[in-house]
Specification:
The protein is α+β, with helices and mostly antiparallel strands and 358 residues long. It has 2 domains: 6-96 and 293-352, Rossmann fold, CATH 3.40.50; 100-291, no CATH class. It has helices at 6-10, 13-22, 64-80, 82-86, 112-126, 139-161, 166-174, 188-198, 238-254, 273-284, 301-309, 324-335, 339-349, and strands spanning 56-58, 90-93, 98-102, 105-109, 128-130, 136-138, 202-209, 214-221, 227-231, 257-263, 266-272, 289-292, 316-318. The chain has a 4-stranded antiparallel β-sheet with strand order 6-5-10-11. A hairpin with a 5-residue loop joins strand 5 and strand 6. The protein is flat.
Length: 358
């Protein structure tokens, strides 16, 4: 939408149908809102008196593909119909991602966070965790342990998505010191190498000198033919720092291995954190059926009405622009036809990423 010519946009039958349904016209070709947020010549030719609807609702699937389509539509409205956003006419529907049912009982769950809340409700009612030291965690203590475990495992998945093997990432976290880039300029480096050596890895430092920059990399070798190279700035990333803190919390509460899950007189062994979380999910969902909606089309008409379209039940987000200049710059950077600014943005922000869905 950002880099597509206006005549090509109008050639898209879905966009053409959308413009026709709104009834307010299309505006002039080739113009965009200015950086101060004022309506520019794009607004000329658009007659809001003819606008048929004062609630225009973007309704896409609840997964990452739906988010992509939603972003494209938001780009279209920001560039061509920003006055609808300014007047509060644009909304985003919130369809559920899951349906959980047991017998005649059913519950719609909008996202992963709410699904986790549902699981934790079940844990608080029915489950307990015994640690390797023999301590039993129930209720709030068990929920706290499992929330930290889920958070850590999500970070482990993010690390895998940027090229760090799960085993290596956990070995980095298990070192007793919260490393920073500065750690590799003193005696900590040799202690760190010894830790990795005992864990089945070798590590070598590489220094890259450039005209105005000096970068330090570490090359990890798992002694099975696979090497991983990272810059030392990785240890300043949110992925590493938040994961280190999460593992510290888990160890303080319960250690990090040899758990036993207790439920209704049964004991289920869970040797590590991954198996603990997997077992908890299985046990918490026992007796329930979980349906994940990959798309709105998987719902029957009654379900779609009940969860997403019924004004008495639906949840919507109103679209607003707090800083027009910042929004304008971000749309140009991420959705425009210039590759370099987008690449630079990704490089600068990759290690600060909170979550990644691939």
């Amino acid at each position: 939408m950002e880099k597509t010519r206006f005549d090509k946009i109008l050639g898209n039958k879905e966009i053409k149908a959308l413009i026709t349904a709104m009834g307010a016209g299309v505006g002039n070709d080739g113009s965009v809102p200015d950086s101060e947020g004022e309506e520019s010549e794009a607004a000329e030719g658009i007659d809001l008196e003819r606008l048929r609807y004062h609630k225009i609702i973007i309704m896409t699937d609840a997964d990452v593909d739906g988010a992509h389509i939603r972003t494209l539509l938001l780009t279209f409205f920001f560039r061509r119909f920003k006055m609808l956003i300014d007047r509060g006419f644009l909304y985003i529907a919130q369809p559920p991602l899951y349906r959980v049912h047991k017998g005649k009982q059913e519950r719609y769950i909008k996202d992963e966070e709410e699904f986790n809340d549902f699981l934790m409700e079940r844990v608080g009612q029915d489950l307990a965790v015994r640690t390797a030291a023999g301590r039993e965690l129930r209720g709030g203590e068990a929920v706290s342990l499992l929330n930290w475990t889920k958070f850590l495992l999500a970070k482990v998945n993010e690390a895998e998505n940027i090229g760090l093997a799960r085993d290596l990432f956990m070995k980095l976290l298990s070192y007793g010191v919260k490393l920073t880039p500065a750690s590799f300029g003193n005696g900590e480096w040799e202690r760190f190498r010894t830790h990795l050596d005992r864990s089945g890895y070798t590590a070598e430092m590489e220094v890259q000198e450039e005209e105005d920059e000096r970068r330090i990399f570490i090359v990890y070798d798992n002694r099975k033919g696979h090497k991983t190279r990272t810059g030392v700035e990785f240890f300043n990333s949110k992925i590493f720092k938040q994961s280190f803190d999460a593992l510290a919390q888990i160890r303080d509460q319960a250690g990090d291995r040899d758990f036993v899950l207790l439920r209704e007189g049964q004991e289920i062994a869970a040797p590590d954190l991954t198996s603990l979380w997997d077992t908890v999910q299985d046990e918490a969902m026992r007796g329930y059926t979980l349906q994940r909606y990959k798309g709105l089309g998987e719902m029957n008409p009654e379900q779609l009405w009940e969860t997403t379209m019924n004004p008495e039940n639906r949840t919507m987000l109103q679209v607003s622009v707090d800083d027009a200049a910042e929004a304008d710059e971000l749309f140009q950077k991420l959705m425009g036809d210039q590759v370099e600014p987008r690449r630079d943005f990704i490089v600068r922000n990759a290690l600060a990423l909170e979550a990644l869905d691939i």
